[in-house]
Amino acid sequence: MTPAADEHAVEVLKGLLDANDHEALHNREHFERHNVLAVNLMSSPGAGKTALLEATIEALGKDLNIAVVEGDLETENDAERIRAKGVPAIQITTGSACHLDAHMVHDALHELELDDVDVLFIENVGNLVCPASFDLGQHINVALLSTPEGDDKPAKYPVMFRAADLVLVTKSDLLEVLGDFSPDAAERCVRQIANPAPVLKVSAKTGLGMDGWLDWIRREAGSRE
Amino acid sequence: MHELSLCEALIDQVTTIAREQRVSSVSDIYVRVGPLSGVEGPLMRNAFPIAAAGTVADQATLHLEDAGIRVRCEECGAESDAKMNNLVCAACGDWRTTLISGDELILQRVVMGEARV
Ligand SMILES: Nc1nc2c(ncn2[C@@H]2O[C@H](COP(=O)(O)OP(=O)(O)OP(=O)(O)O)[C@@H](O)[C@H]2O)c(=O)[nH]1
Ligand SMILES: [Mg+2]
Ligand SMILES: [Zn+2]
Ligand SMILES: [Zn+2]
Ligand SMILES: [Zn+2]
Question: Chain B within 8 Å of A17 (Cβ-Cβ)?
Answer without folding.
Answer: yes
